UniProtKB/TrEMBL annotation:
This is Inhibitor of the KinA pathway to sporulation. Residues 24-208 form the Exonuclease domain. GO terms for biological process: DNA metabolic process. InterPro entries: 3-5_Exoribonuclease, Ribonucl_H, RNaseH-like_sf, RNaseH_sf.
């Protein structure tokens, strides 16, 4: 997509989106186990699973997009309880914190489901709900949010901003969309808040 096309899209004004029929909805992000090169090989190495380590979520007013509540969960991986150096360097999450604060996956999923409500509406910049479902299956659990609605916001962001999909990763939304944010990247709660702020910025520009 050319720069002129991107600029043309940026000048468009869209009717304000209502993100949920409910009064509130949840924007969330996750961090999961990773190793050097695991993304390139799609976690196909021996013993490589995308086990949840951190879940961050903010509850937003569906009309104003203002934050009304927050949730952060640390999760203790069962198959790979020792975090890789690659993951620790990427996220800044320490092994000691996971050992101290980490919940077993069933409790973490139940807490997230309570926060979101079982038939609520959740949004992420990517398929974070797919990771949650994958974890439930890996652990032989029923997914507690099977009746919830999940939306991947990235296609919407691409359509409304004209910015190519690969550039719209959550950790770079502030630099890509041109707003100031001092929150760390690859921290699930910080990234959820950054995504929420991106929605507010785009709402202010009339793009969502």
């Amino acid at each position: 997509m050319s720069l002129d096309t991107i600029r043309a899209v940026e000048t468009l004004s869209f009717p304000p989106m209502r993100f949920s029929d409910d009064p509130e909805f949840v924007v969330f992000d996750t961090e999961w186990t990773a190793w050097e090169g695991s993304m390139a090989r799609d976690w196909s190495g021996p013993g490589e699973y995308r086990e949840l380590v951190q879940v961050g979520a903010v509850k937003l007013d569906a009309l104003t997009l203002e934050e009304t509540d927050r949730l952060e969960l640390m999760v203790r991986p069962r198959f790979n309880p020792v975090l890789s150096d690659y993951f620790k360097d990427l996220t800044g999450i320490k092994q000691s914190r996971v050992d101290r604060e980490g919940l077993d996956l069933p409790e973490a999923l139940d807490r997230f489901a309570t926060f979101m409500t079982p038939e609520g509406w959740g949004a992420s910049n990517g398929g974070d709900d797919v990771i949650m479902r994958e974890n439930a299956e890996l652990y032989g659990l029923e997914f507690p949010l099977a009746n919830a609605t999940f939306t991947n916001l990235r296609p919407i962001l691409v359509e409304r901003t004209g910015i190519p999909r690969p550039r719209l990763v959550t950790g770079q939304l502030d630099s890509v969309l041109g707003f100031t944010c001092d929150l760390a990247a690859h921290d699930a709660l910080a990234d959820a808040r950054k995504l929420a702020e991106a929605l507010r910025v785009l709402r202010g520009r009339g793009q969502i």
